[in-house]
Specification:
By secondary structure, the protein is an alpha+beta fold. The chain is built from 2 helices and 10 strands; from the N terminus they run ββββββββαβαβ. The chain has a 5-stranded mixed β-sheet. The chain starts with a strand and ends with a strand.
């Protein structure tokens, strides 16, 4: 699955780090969405990251072979057991392209580093 994220948001609260890439314009009733989150509050240092593709029914804790964040795109590849669980071959690899100014991109990088801290599958390219 590949889409252009016309909406991109990344933020950290006192308890979670969250990032979302979405295209609500192409199909408002069923938008393409890729999101990531992870608890960061004290006591959750060893917690797993969580991701969703489109909605909660396609969400999972961990299960990515890789996640690559570049200046204008994010790419993920799911582990085979997660593809099987979801039952949607099109979700095996997901790419979201985006266009952010430098400040928002820096916030995105910092947030993604918090979400994937300690996980080797995260790469900045």
């Amino acid at each position: 699955m590949k889409f252009t994220a016309t909406y991109t948001d990344a933020y950290t609260t006192s308890i979670t780090a969250n990032a979302m890439f979405a295209d609500p314009e192409s199909s408002p009733d069923q938008p393409s969405v890729l999101s990531f989150s992870r608890p960061i509050e004290p006591g959750f240092e060893d917690s797993a990251y969580y991701f969703e593709i489109n909605d909660q029914s396609y969400g999972n804790y961990q299960g990515l072979e890789y996640i690559r964040l570049g200046r204008n795109r994010v790419e993920i590849k799911l582990e085979p057991h997660v593809i099987k669980k979801f039952g949607v071959e099109d979700f095996a690899e997901v790419t979201a392209e985006f266009d952010l100014d430098d400040t928002k991109y820096q916030t995105l990088i910092e947030t993604m580093r918090r979400i994937f801290n300690g996980f080797d599958e995260y790469q900045e390219v």
